[in-house]
Amino acid sequence: MMHEGMHTGGLIWMLLMAVIMVIPFWKISNRLGYPGALGLLVLVPLVNLGFLYFLAFAQWPIDRKGDPSGHSD
Fold this sequence. Notes:
Blueprint: H1 8-32, H2 47-57, H3 61-64
C-alpha cells in the first residue's frame, strides 16, 4: 500500500518555512506601528500578497505619531 499524506520530514520543513516567513513580517509590522500578529497573514495564500500591498501603500501608524527626525517619505 502506498503511503499517503505528509511525512514527518515534510511537516517539519513546512513548519520551519512558516517560522522563517512569519518572524520578519511580525517585526516589520511592529516597527510600522501595527500589531505583530498581522505577520501571521503571510501564511494565508493570496492574503499574503494583499498584506504586502497594504504595508507598501497604507499610511503607517508610526508616521501618524510624527517622526522626530523630520523625515517624510
